[in-house]
Design a protein that fits this description.
22% helix
Length: 130
């Protein structure tokens, strides 16, 4: 259920950015500590976005690595795995920085790509009955 809170946060950001336009795609940077996957977040987003401007939109997820600092040997590293041990000494006494961010990088709106209705195909038919 963790994904739903995140999906709702993404939706709120998307709707603010969309400013009334229909949304096709949203590109989101998520820290590795959030431990979300693209299929899971898309599943949750589909449900929370139902009936909104972002209904049916695809979420492109970019996992942002965590920065690690080992308290034992001061080694720094980055990882997308939140359960890492120190690559220097194998220790688990590690400080992490970042990794819990959730940032909406960009959205793609549906504007000007599809204009429904207004059929005019019944005109310009030479040779037809008059
Ligand atoms: Zn270490």
């Amino acid at each position: 259920m963790h994904e739903f809170g995140i999906a709702e946060a993404i939706l709120a950001a998307v709707e603010t950015r969309a400013n009334g336009r229909r949304v096709r795609r949203a590109r989101v940077h998520a820290g590795a500590l959030l431990r979300i996957t693209e299929p899971a977040i898309n599943h949750a987003f589909t449900l929370v976005a139902d009936g909104s401007l972002a209904e049916g939109a695809q979420v492109d997820l970019v996992i942002v690595p965590i920065r690690l600092v080992c308290r034992s040997c001061d080694r720094t590293a980055t990882s997308v795995d939140p359960f890492i041990t120190c690559p220097g000494c194998g220790g688990t006494d590690i400080d992490t920085e970042g990794g819990d961010d959730l940032v909406l990088e960009s959205i793609q709106t549906a504007e000007a790509t599809h204009v429904p209705g207004d059929s005019r195909r019944d005109r310009g038919n030479p040779g037809g009955p008059s």
